Amino acid sequence: MHLLQAVFMGIVQGLSEFLPISSSAHLVFTSNFYKVIKNIDLTQTTEQEIFLDIMLHLGTLIAVLIFFRKDITDIIKSFYEVIKNKDFKNYNFKTRYLIDCTYCYSVG
Fold first, then answer.
1. Can you tell me the distance from the alpha carbon of 2 to that of 104, in angstroms, rounded to the nearest whole number?
2. What pTM value is reported for the model?
């Protein structure tokens, strides 16, 4: 894998991650596009490419966790507050929001 390919894939991952389409497909497309330009066999997928894909997704996860760290800690705190007070009818909005979103996502 070339450095230029890794930089190009990182830029594509950063720009396409939050679009409502697969960023993994963008990475495959970007990798194949680079291979076509450099006349490399498209069927060759190296361990380096797979490792880079994983690291790009891990980097995105870390960036999202850092960006939403306050919201995540508020949700966790409110969840433990509900458990501690054993008041399941009158719980914090963020906990309710988390439970509702989780339910909708799992059902849909």
1. 42
2. 0.65
Cα gap 3→67, rounded to integer Å: 28
The tens-digit pLDDT sequence of the chain (108 residues) is 678 888 888 888 888 777 777 777 888 888 888 888 888 777 777 788 888 888 888 988 898 899 989 988 887 887 777 778 776 665 566 666 777 777 777 775
For residue 48 the two structure tokens come to: 């380096």
Provide the domain count of the chain.
2
Amino acid letter, 104:
C
Q: Do 58 and 13 sit in the same domain of this protein?
A: yes
Residue 7 sits in the same domain as residue 31: yes
Q: What amino acid occupies position 1?
A: M
Instruction: Specify the DSSP class assigned to residue 47.
Output: H
Taking the C-alpha atoms of residue 32 and residue 35, their distance in angstroms, rounded to an integer, is 5
Whether 60 and 73 map to the same domain: the answer is no
